[in-house]
Specification:
The structure is a single chain. The protein has one domain (about 30-135). Helix content is about 40%, strand content about 20%. It has two helices and three strands. It has helices at about 25-70, 75-90; strands at about 95-105, 105-115, 125-135. Strands 1-2-3 form a three-stranded antiparallel beta sheet, covered by helices on one side. The model has no long low-confidence stretch (mean pLDDT about 85).
């Protein structure tokens, strides 16, 4: 003989609007909304990194060109800057490069301009960096 009582099982149900059949397909909708946002953030981060790299290459090339042009031998600063950009990746880093050089009696200036690579279609970022160094000369 059993002394305990048996209880009938009552299925547990969530209140309306809290899980269950009312939310069927909600993960798909969340993915449709969040995935483009996630990819946009990733592409913006990548674009920022590419711009920063192109900017770093442009300033380093302009510094190298100004250093060569301002040396005692007064070499070709434009060629030195172009060689630096080619060694750093060329068109894969900085496209449409324009290098301007000026030399005065006291200073050498090289300006490097170009367009950074882009992962976002239709968006191109202009990069312009300039470096000036004093011209080496013998004084008495």
């Amino acid at each position: 003989m059993m002394t305990g009582r048996r209880h009938a099982r009552i299925p547990l149900r969530n209140p309306p609007g809290v899980g269950g059949a009312d939310e069927r397909g909600s993960v798909s909708i969340q993915a449709v909304i969040l995935m483009p946002l996630l990819f946009s953030i990733m592409f913006l981060g990548m674009q920022g990194a590419l711009y920063y790299h192109a900017r770093s290459v442009a300033i380093a090339a302009s510094q190298e060109g100004a250093r060569v042009a301002g040396s005692e031998q007064q070499g070709n600063g434009t060629a030195a800057a172009a060689d630096f950009i080619a060694a750093a990746g060329g068109e894969d880093v900085l496209r449409g490069v324009s290098i301007n050089s000026s030399l005065t009696a006291t200073a050498s200036t090289v300006t490097v301009s170009g367009v950074s690579m882009s992962v976002i279609p239709g968006w191109s970022l202009q990069v312009t960096q300039s470096a000036t160094v004093p011209v080496e000369r013998i004084t008495q």
